[in-house]
Write a structure and sequence with these properties.
The chain is mainly alpha-helical. The protein has a two-stranded antiparallel sheet. A hairpin with a 4-residue loop joins strand 4 and strand 5. The longest helix is centred in the N-terminal third of the chain and has 17 residues. The radius of gyration is 17 Å and the shape is globular.
Length: 175
């Protein structure tokens, strides 16, 4: 907890990934590939130069309290559920983004890219900005029928579409 908010120490977690890879290399073992799997719903925002705007806020942070109800100002729960098929939980990415739009809009204005946590680690390791399908499904921004970002949801909310990157199939080689 810092300043009344809960954060992930994303750089320490990344350092652990690097240390693990170095340990394997030090042992003389080869690595054919690695996969990144983390918790869902949390994300990092990058600016136009690819720099992380701030350490990721933890999904259990209180900033999303009341956001489910606030979201109904933009799109009905029935319509929302028809599109996504996801249960309504205040920890979902959509409510974290709505909280930013309402309380810290400058963060979304500065953001060029949203990367979910495993995609952020993939970016740190490879430089590629994309969103893996199964982690995209935790955002409540995905159309369950088309398997793409939902234009209807995004256009209904004060969330900039430009921050959402290409969705790639699970198992895609990133770099």
């Amino acid at each position: 907890e810092v300043g009344g908010h809960f954060y992930w120490d994303i750089y320490a977690l990344y350092r652990h990934i690097i240390d693990g890879l170095k340990l394997v290399a030090h042992r003389g073992e080869s690595i054919a590939s690695i996969g990144i799997d983390t918790w869902g719903v949390d994300f990092g925002l990058l600016d136009k130069d690819g720099y992380l705007l701030e350490n990721q806020i933890h999904y259990r942070d209180s900033r999303t309290e009341g956001m489910i109800e606030d979201c109904e100002e933009y799109i009905s729960k029935d319509k929302f559920y028809q599109i996504t098929g996801l249960q309504f939980m205040e920890i979902n990415t959509i409510y974290q983004l709505l909280s930013l739009a309402k309380k810290r809009p400058e963060m979304l204005e500065r953001a060029d890219t949203l990367l979910m946590t495993p995609d952020l680690f993939n970016y740190f390791l490879s430089g590629r900005k994309c969103t893996e399908y199964s982690i995209a499904s935790t955002t409540q921004l995905l159309d369950a029928r088309t398997h793409q970002w939902s234009d209807e949801i995004i256009d209904s909310l004060p969330i900039p579409r430009k921050i959402l990157k290409e969705i790639v199939p699970t198992g895609t080689v990133i770099g």
